[in-house]
Write a structure and sequence with these properties.
307 residues; alpha+beta; six-stranded antiparallel β-sheet; 28% strand; seven-stranded antiparallel β-sheet
């Protein structure tokens, strides 16, 4: 009961944000995203809320005159046994991506470049930021109503239109429960740590339409909530204008993921994949995960004011 109470507190602290849009000289409105975010850390009893970070997971949203950008990153929890906070690596990646979006060199068609430049800055820090992280960046280019994505590992997204998933990311795994990841290991551990290049990211580009629902999340969602259940939940808000209702849907998915992870009888997507790899597991090893969910809605015309 105490667990549910604390989880609800974190969920209801979700940041609501919306992207306003500019009107072209010919008064033709550009598309924009209305987005909400929710999440909770692995150790929610001792963790404090920090903007852009939920435990080991991190996120950002920002916009320019031509693009709306969303990013999530999942710090690899195994680094705690080395005395390293996994959330510092993922948080640095996302904060740097956010800053770079607002630089003159930002290209709204190159999310891989955004990840690469952020990772390069991390590697060049005088005080090393050690650890590993998966990442997913999604950019809406308002000029051509096209979304450009890049994901490394098992963070990802789905796009729902007319009750169907029309686009989704592909999970990248070296082997079961070992996703692709950006890394900076401690000295002497380089040979024992997986480290993938930003160029290895899976990339997609596709046009989007008014009313499309986009879910961007870390693997705590996809590992615990079946795709059909996500679809049934998201299709209820297609074309929804009320950001509060979007927030309620994101909260529902977060609580659903946590509830199912605690259910010892439930065969989650993670548990099913574990069985296929001759591992007996329920949920994502029960409750040992943090998660971040972005629920975004594409709209035409002038957007809502930020809230």
């Amino acid at each position: 009961m105490q667990s549910l109470c604390w989880t609800t507190r974190f969920v209801t602290r979700a940041l609501r944000s919306s992207f306003s849009t500019l009107i072209e000289p010919n008064n033709k409105p550009k598309p924009h995203l209305v987005s909400v975010v929710v999440g909770f850390p692995k150790d929610f009893l001792r963790s404090k809320y920090k903007l852009g970070k939920f435990g080991e997971d991190a996120w950002f949203t920002t916009r320019t005159s031509v693009a709306d950008v969303i990013g999530v990153a999942d710090g690899v929890g195994g680094w705690r046994s080395y005395g390293i906070d996994p959330g510092e690596f993922s948080s640095f990646l996302m904060k740097t991506c956010e800053r770079l979006v607002n630089c003159a060199s930002f290209n709204p068609q190159k999310p891989v470049s955004l990840l690469a430049y952020s990772y390069c800055e991390l590697l060049e820090q005088k005080k090393p930021i050690l650890g590993s992280s998966t990442a997913c960046v999604l950019i809406l280019n308002r000029e051509n109503s096209t979304v450009y994505t890049a994901n490394i590992g098992d963070s990802g997204f789905i796009v729902v239109r007319k009750g169907e998933i029309v686009h989704r990311s592909e999970e990248q795994q070296h082997y079961f429960n070992t996703p692709f990841q950006l890394s900076l290991p401690p000295p002497g551990h380089g040979d024992n740590v997986l480290s993938d290049s930003p160029d290895s990211a899976d990339t997609l580009s596709f046009t989007v339409k008014d009313g499309d629902v986009i879910l961007v999340a870390t693997d705590g969602v996809f590992d615990n909530v079946p795709t059909k259940l996500l679809l049934d939940t998201l299709k209820e808000i297609e074309g929804e204008q009320d950001a509060v209702k979007l927030q309620m849907t994101a909260n529902t998915i977060a609580l659903m993921a946590r509830s199912l992870a605690f259910d010892s009888e439930f065969m989650s997507p993670f548990a099913i994949n574990a069985r296929k790899n001759n591992i007996n597991a329920i949920g994502e090893f029960s409750f040992f995960f943090s998660l971040i969910i972005f629920c975004a809605l594409l709209q035409q015309g002038q957007g809502l004011c930020g809230c």
